[in-house]
Amino acid sequence: MAAQTTVRRKLRARRKVRQAAGERLRLSVFRSSKHIYAQIIDDSKGTTVAAASSAAVKTGTKTDTAAAVGKALAEAAVAKGVSSATFDRAM
Q1: What is the C-alpha separation between 44 and 29, in angstroms, rounded?
Q2: Residue 51 in contact with residue 38, Cβ under 8 Å?
Q3: Tell me, what's the pLDDT at 36?
Q4: Strand 85-88 relative to strand 47-53, pairing
């Protein structure tokens, strides 16, 4: 029962993000116990425009690693012509 509630809450939050974004792209961030992953998604086409992860970036602290992933994602997004995205809080 709890799993169904969690899934519904997650889908509701994602729907609100898509409605608020309009035509803008979506920035999704996932943090596992070892790595952090970030990607910019085009929901209209169903494709990932740019992505970065801490598996490719080796730095010291978790804060430094997250900053390096953000910088790598920003560079990849600018190279693809992306100027703005809506943050998906991904409950």
Answers
A1: 19
A2: yes
A3: 93
A4: unpaired
Burial of 63 (0-12, 13-18, 19+ CB in 10 A): exposed
Contact 13, 91 (CB under 8 A): yes
The kind and range of the H/E element at 31 are strand 25-31
Looking at 1-91, list the stretches that DSSP marks H as alpha helix, in order from N- to C-terminal side: 2-21, 62-79
* Single-letter residue type at 87: F
Each residue's pLDDT tens digit, 32-52: 989 999 999 988 888 999 999
Task: Identify the residue with better confidence: 4 or 71.
Answer: 71
> pTM here?
0.77
End-to-end, the C-alpha distance of the chain in Å comes to 17
